[in-house]
Design goal:
The structure holds 2 protein chains of 2 kinds.
Chain A (H helix, E strand, L loop, with lengths): L2 H11 L1 H39 L2 H4 L1 E7 L9 H13 L2 H6 L4 E10 L2 E8 L6 E5 L7 E5 H7 L6 E6 L6 E13 L23 E2 L14 E7 L10 H17 L4 E3 L2 H44 L1 H9 L4 H38 L10 H26 L3 H5 L8 H23 L9 H31 L2 H12 L3 H37 L3 E6 L3 H11 L5 E11 L2 E8 L1 H7 L7 H11 L8 E2 L2 E8 L8 E8 L6 E7 L3 E8 L7 E10 L7 E12 L2 E2 L10 E3 L5 E5 L4 E7 L5 E5 L6 E6 L11 E5 L5 E10 L9 E5 H8 L12 E6 L7 H7 L3 E7 H8 L3 H29 L2 H13 L4 H34 L4 E4 L2 E2 L10 H24 L13
Parallel strand pairs in A: 3-8, 5-7, 13-29, 26-28
Antiparallel strand pairs in A: 1-9, 1-10, 2-3, 2-6, 2-9, 4-7, 6-7, 11-30, 11-31, 12-13, 12-30, 14-19, 15-18, 15-20, 16-17, 16-19, 19-25, 20-21, 20-24, 22-25, 23-24, 26-29, 27-28, 32-33
Helix pairs in contact in A: 1-10, 2-8, 2-10, 2-11, 2-23, 8-11, 8-16, 8-23, 9-10, 10-11, 13-14, 14-15, 14-16, 14-25, 15-25, 16-22, 16-23, 16-25, 16-26, 17-21, 18-19, 23-26, 25-26
Chain B lengths: L5 E12 L2 E13 L4 E5 L6 H8 L7 E6 L2 E2 L5 H10 L1 E4 L13 H9 L4 H10 L8 H7 L17 H12 L6 E5 L7 H16 L3 E5 L3 H7 L1 E6 L2 E7 L2 E4 L11 H6 L6 E5 L5 E5 L2 H8 L1
Helix pairs in contact in B: 3-5, 3-6, 5-6, 6-7
Classes of the chains: A alpha+beta, B alpha/beta.
Chain lengths: 1007, 295
């Protein structure tokens, strides 16, 4: 027989307790493994998510050049490819993480009054559905079906396009080999280049598969590039540093080849870094309390078990075992179990992380078995052994007779000192954590607070039970007497109270934080996205977008939104032009009911004149009574086509009498807007003149317009040097005088004088509380705004922005500028849940390319995988494990030494105490032992949450979210119910166990 | 196995209880020859179990001397005492189960007890073939009558109370000690089981081991050959082959038997009158004589 035999037989004999030790050691190892393994997986998830969420354009690499024939843009693609391959061959890491490149060249061309791109793109024919043939041969192109229909083109036609600048450049005739539709216009293959954005004035791109065809004109500006998409799924954490260096080096190498490397990948990685760093700091902080709790419970367990085995250890000493061998015999079983738990704990930790990764983390992210995992396990092993040795030390040091004697453990001064040290340490750490609530250390505050209040509660419970004992003795009431006696002398009672308090507080805090974070994520998602679905699109101009939205969603469940950013006082101000009539239906605006939003929308869209829509011509009936001899004067219409700058169309020279002045309006087939009428010198110059005209009527395409000449303010002179006086009446009287060389313009006012707006944050003017302000809206000219309402935040625009009516803003801006040329405008389509599911496809059909789709649910999903959520999930898990540990301790306290307790109870039965009284006494004892820490723990957890959560980032790293406290179904009620149920079950088990105290038990003895 | 003698001279043991010194033994003088079989008798709290613990080296004497064989227990270091228990002194605690590991078989329990003997000593013993060589556990079990029918492979709870007690004796004898100390080995046993245990103890004595047994049972004392009655922390009486004797203490004190004590209650003045035939006559002083003397 070897020592192993004795150990194994002992383990089998104490199977239940041994299993608990094993389970506890496994839990400790799991917790220790969980921190590095989960950190790693969560960081990888954040990386993968971050890279996937960023656009292909943002994460990919583009190597190329832009310019005319004297630049590298005219290099053969093969040459650029060779340069890239050579450079990448020296950086295998970067090369492996990049997908096959797509080579592309494009240049701006025009045919007729239509602008378009002539483009070459590798294998474009595989991504186009072509009626006809792929334009493989030189001189061949394919044209989109939409453009072909609009421009009356067909397969086999010859199309002459102008290459190069308008002044200069040459024409080149291509043969249309087929008509295409993009198989998937939104596919990553097409990158960010807007190939499919046909409108009135632009056509979809013309594709050629012969790159030389694009280099025919040396003065043309070519954009030549190789687009390398990043294989986000292949990028692992270890690659990041290498990728950063590789991009830097690659850029330097390509510069020598006159090629430019463009990528925003380093910036994307920088953003991801913050989340990763947060996880790296948070996970260990969360794991530490769980680990400490595990070790504390293990300590208690081993101490109890060793104490229980004291008679066995006494036998070993009695038989002359040297102290080393006696220690080995006393602790061997526990140590063997702790060692055996290491592989099981590692496996459990890795499995848990793998399950969590599958359920919560980014696709393709799994557990990684790396050295920190084993280091964590080794730490858990060392700490477990240390806890076991420390726990058993006192018992093992006792002499034989001391081991054989059953003397109840006494608390005493040492326990008081230990409590004092623990409380002092916890209080100091709590103060440090509370001072820096934004740091991960803040997550340590709730368990520390719980330790402090737990120790205090345990002490108070001891004092209370002693007082109860005295009272019960005086009154002679047996049930309170028995329970108070047991509570006041019970050795493990105080530790049990501390453990349960800490566990309950941990889970309560975790559940509260989880609920608060869930609400904060929902709020953030609502604020960030602004509608159930938001599609970022490429559109020519606001009116084109509005038209496309109307066509794609006739039901009105979608809304065109145009955004711009301005800066005031060195801070960004977000401008949002919305279709106010659909705002209430579509926008998700937190804190605003639908009625509120409808009310606000109505204020954004006061009644003004309808725009004067023009068709193919315009006619003005004008009377002139007196006309100066010199200079010769003319009248003109100021006309704005959607997205185009206003044009002045001459209606003819002014002549005496009442006459009709007429002009046709090229380019207004789909509708123009009459901005105003202009009167000026026919031949220019600055010769002074004075004239009075009366505009009696306006018509277009033979139909009269409704100019409302009789309404004051409807027609107003445009501010300028010429003196213009407008008189209302049946006819619009316009008196012009002065020497200003520019035309005198009288504008039709179809907008409010100042654009009503909802303001979030202060007004972007010196007086933040001002009711009116000026800000460049959609043009670069300052426009007047008036505050129609204030809001804490705007949907999708955050806490500093201006929201206004898109139509009015467009009309205002188009009085003097071309919105089609405004590259700073960003176009979006917001959709409610009632909008067509295939809105993106419909928009594509309507000529609007969808670049990106965001949804509130998708945003929620992303936020749930950001560092704070992943950290809180671990916290919740730790809280759950802590409760299981606490329940284990409760049962352990009941089971270890149960024979002696049953003997005592049996003796009480023999002494005449009824079994019902004993049961009630045990129940009262457990009610106090578990009820006090339950209440105290809940209070400590909630208090910790109230104090710490406002400072803890719940949604995004570095940003503390405003907390909304509300009761409702969530993790907290579930956690409380689970805690109460588990504790109740533990009490029932203990009661059942104590029910075995029958007088017959006295025959067997206490041992 | 050769027995070890035991000598106690003026043995005192005082322990502290809630701040008070309590004298458990107040000068025990006792000699036990090697191979002798002795029963320690006495009322509860008289100090007989304390004496047993002192003989086992489990308690250090407060004063006086105690030696087992060549070992002076008062001067021995803890390591020497531990070695003493490993090789020379076998102890059987009161209550058979307290001597046994419940998850080991009878044979394994004996082996467990033998593991206390240092390995080098075991090897030397085997090589030299000395009489101190460790016995095969089955031989030890056989000595106490636990052989056959797979008794050696039984767990303790499968054995009858008597067998369990004999197994406890076997565990105490596992290292072939020269002195076996057994505390109440026959308590809570029926007559048959008690006789079996006594037979086992007799076999042990016959094998040469000195046996000291603490018991309340006078019959057991009779069967042990010599009884030593401990009373008030001293050796009050001895019995040899059925004859009881008071023991004259080192300071001349004599513990009177109970029946005499009833006749001469404490405080009684007696005259001690040696007689020519070698006997000593105790004559209580008459009360009037005392009064006359006082007048």
């Amino acid at each position: 027989m070897t020592a192993w035999t004795v150990m194994l037989r002992g383990i089998r004999y104490r199977a239940g307790r041994s299993f608990v030790v094993f389970l506890l050691a496994v839990t400790a190892t799991t917790a220790a493994v969980l921190a590095p393994a989960y950190s790693r997986a969560a960081q990888q998830s954040v990386l993968t998510d971050g890279l996937s969420a960023a656009s292909t354009d943002a994460t990919g690499l583009t190597a190329g050049a832009k310019g005319t024939a004297d630049s590298a843009a005219f290099k053969d693609l093969a040459e650029i490819r060779l340069a890239m391959n050579t450079a990448l061959a020296k950086d295998q890491l970067l090369a492996d993480r990049l997908d096959l490149p797509v080579a592309a060249i494009d240049t701006e061309i025009s045919f007729g009054d239509t602008n378009a791109k002539l483009a070459y793109r590798d294998n474009a024919c595989y991504h186009l559905t072509i009626d006809g043939s792929c334009p493989d041969d030189p001189g061949q192109i394919v044209v989109s079906k939409r453009t072909a229909a609009a421009r009356d083109l067909k397969t086999g036609d010859h199309l002459t396009v102008h290459l190069g600048p308008a002044t200069g450049g040459h024409d080149k005739t291509f043969t249309i080999s087929g008509l295409y539709t993009p198989t998937d216009a939104d596919a990553a293959y097409w990158g960010r280049t807007s190939y499919f954005s046909a409108s009135d004035s632009t056509a979809d791109a013309l594709f050629s598969m012969t790159e030389d065809d694009l280099r025919l004109e040396r003065t043309a500006t070519l954009v030549t590039r190789l687009e390398y998409p990043l294989r986000a799924d292949r990028v692992r954490l270890d690659d990041v540093a290498g990728l950063r260096d590789g991009i830097q080096t690659l850029g330097d190498r390509l510069r020598g080849e006159e090629l430019e490397l463009t990528t925003t990948l380093p910036a994307v990685l920088r953003d991801i870094d913050a989340d990763q760093a947060s996880i790296g700091r948070t996970a260990p902080v969360i794991a530490v309390p769980l680990l400490l709790l595990c070790w504390f419970v293990l300590f208690l367990l081993v101490a109890s078990l060793t104490e229980e085995r004291a008679p066995e250890i006494a036998l070993a000493k009695l038989r002359g075992y040297p102290s080393g061998r006696a220690t080995g015999f006393g602790l061997g079983e526990v140590l063997l179990l702790i060692v055996a738990a290491v592989p099981a704990g590692i496996a459990a930790g890795l499995l848990l992380v793998q399950v969590a990764a599958g359920a919560m983390l980014a696709e393709g992210v799994g557990v990684e078995v790396r050295w920190p995992v084993f280091a964590g396990a080794a730490l858990a092993l060392a700490a477990g052994i240390a806890a076991a040795v420390l726990a058993g030390r006192q018992t093992l040091a006792r002499p034989v007779l001391g081991l054989l004697r059953r003397v109840p453990e006494r608390g005493g001064r040492r326990a008081g000192v230990a409590d004092g040290v623990v409380v002092a340490l916890a209080a100091a750490s709590l103060a440090a954590a509370a001072n820096d609530r934004g740091s991960p250390l803040a997550l340590l505050a709730p368990p520390l607070l719980a330790v402090v209040v737990g120790v205090a509660a345990a002490r108070l419970l001891g004092l209370w039970s002693q007082a109860r004992l005295r009272i019960a003795r005086r009154r002679g009431r047996i049930v309170p007497l028995l329970s108070a006696a047991q509570l006041s002398r019970r050795p493990g009672g105080r530790r049990l109270v501390v453990v349960v308090t800490v566990a309950v507080a941990l889970l309560t805090f975790a559940a509260t934080a989880w609920d608060a974070a869930g609400r904060a994520r929902r709020d953030t998602a609502d604020d960030t996205v602004g509608a159930q679905r938001v599609l970022t699109v490429a559109a020519d101009h606001p009116s084109a977008l509005e038209a496309a939205v109307d066509k794609a969603d006739p039901g009105g469940h979608s809304m065109a939104v145009v955004r711009a950013s301005q800066r005031f006082d060195n801070a960004p101000v977000e401008l949002l032009g919305v279709q106010s009539g659909r705002l209430a239906e579509v926008a998700v605006w937190r804190g605003h009911s639908r009625a509120d939003v409808s009310d606000i929308a109505a204020r954004l869209h006061p009644d003004v004149a309808a725009p004067l829509r023009l068709g193919k011509d315009v006619t003005a009936e004008i009377s002139v009574d007196t006309l100066p001899a010199k200079p010769a004067l003319r009248v003109a219409a100021v006309v704005a086509a959607p997205g185009q700058p206003p044009r002045t169309i001459g209606l003819g020279g002014l002549a005496k009498g009442t006459r009709s002045y007429h002009a046709s309006l090229p380019g207004c087939g789909s509708g123009c807007r009459l901005v105003g009428l202009a009167i000026g010198r026919a031949a220019g110059g600055s010769e002074p003149f004075a004239v009075s005209v009366a505009v009696r009527g306006l018509s277009s395409d033979g139909a009269p317009l409704a100019p409302s000449f009789d309404l004051p303010g409807r027609w107003r002179p445009r501010p300028g040097a010429a003196q213009v006086v407008v008189r209302t009446g049946v006819a619009l009287g316009v008196d012009v005088s002065g020497s200003d060389p520019s035309d005198a313009v009288v504008e039709h006012f179809d907008t409010p004088e100042a654009l009503p707006a909802v303001l979030a944050g202060g007004a972007p003017t010196d007086d933040a509380a001002a009711a009116t302000f000026k800000l460049p809206g959609f043009s670069d000219q300052p426009q007047p705004f008036t505050v129609a309402a204030h809001a804490g935040s705007l949907p999708r625009a955050g806490r500093r922005g201006v929201l206004f009516d898109l139509d009015y803003a467009t009309r205002m801006a188009e009085r003097g500028a071309s919105l089609a040329d405004n590259a700073t405008l960003r176009y979006e389509v917001w959709a409610s849940s009632a909008a067509p599911a295939d809105l993106d496809r419909r928009l594509a059909s309507a000529g609007v390319q969808v670049l990106r789709t965001e949804t509130i649910d998708g945003q929620l999903e992303q936020l749930a995988r950001r560092a704070p959520a992943l950290g809180l999930w671990l916290y919740l898990l730790a809280g759950g494990v802590a409760i299981l540990l606490a329940i284990g301790v409760v049962l352990l306290t009941a089971y270890v030494g149960v024979r002696a307790r049953l003997y005592e109870l049996a003796a009480l039965r023999v002494a005449g105490v009824r079994s019902g009284q004993l049961r009630r006494a045990v129940f009262r004892e457990y009610r106090a032992l578990l009820g006090v820490p339950l209440v105290v723990g809940l209070g400590a957890g909630l208090l910790g949450a109230m104090v710490m959560l406002p400072g803890i980032p719940l949604v995004t790293v570095g940003v503390a979210s405003p907390i909304t406290w509300e009761l409702g179904m969530g993790a907290l009620p579930v956690a409380v119910a689970a805690i109460v149920s588990a504790l109740a079950a533990a009490v029932l088990m203990a009661l059942r166990l104590m029910g075995r105290a029958t007088p017959e038990r006295l025959r067997d003895g206490a041992a | 196995m050769s027995g070890l003698s035991v000598t106690c001279r003026g043995l005192v043991y005082i322990y502290r209880l809630e701040g008070y010194d309590v004298v458990a033994l107040s000068g025990v003088d006792l000699d036990i020859s090697a191979g002798e079989s002795v029963a320690l008798l006495g009322p509860s709290g008289s100090g007989k179990s304390t004496l047993l613990s002192l003989l086992a080296g489990l308690l250090p004497p407060s004063a006086g001397r105690v030696s087992v064989g060549e070992h002076d227990l008062a001067r021995a270091t803890p390591a020497e005492l531990q070695q003493l228990r490993a090789t020379d002194v076998g102890v059987v605690l009161q209550g058979a189960s307290r001597n046994l590991l419940p998850y080991l078989t009878a044979e394994q329990n004996v082996r467990f007890a033998q593991r206390g003997v240092p390995g080098d000593r075991r090897r030397v013993s085997r090589l030299s073939g000395s009489s101190r060589q460790l016995a095969d556990p089955r031989e030890v079990l056989a000595m106490v009558g636990l052989s056959g029918r797979g008794r050696n492979r039984q767990l303790p709870q499968r054995l009858s109370p008597g067998e369990r007690q004999r197994l406890a004796l076997a565990v105490g004898l596992a290292a072939r000690p020269g002195l076996l100390l057994a505390d109440e080995p026959t308590s809570q046993l029926d007559t048959h089981a008690r006789d079996e245990v006594l037979l086992a103890l007799d076999a042990v004595r016959r094998a040469g081991t000195t046996v000291v047994v603490v018991t309340h049972d006078p019959d057991v004392g009779l069967r042990m050959g010599r009884t030593v009655t401990i009373r008030d922390g001293r050796v009050g009486a001895e019995g040899r082959r059925g004859e009881d004797y008071a023991v004259v203490g080192r300071d001349g004190t004599v513990h009177l038997p109970q029946e005499v004590l009833r006749m001469l209650p404490p405080g009684t003045l007696v005259g001690v009158e040696p007689q020519p035939d070698g006997t000593v006559l105790l004559v209580p002083a008459r009360s009037h004589t005392l009064l006359e003397d006082m007048q």
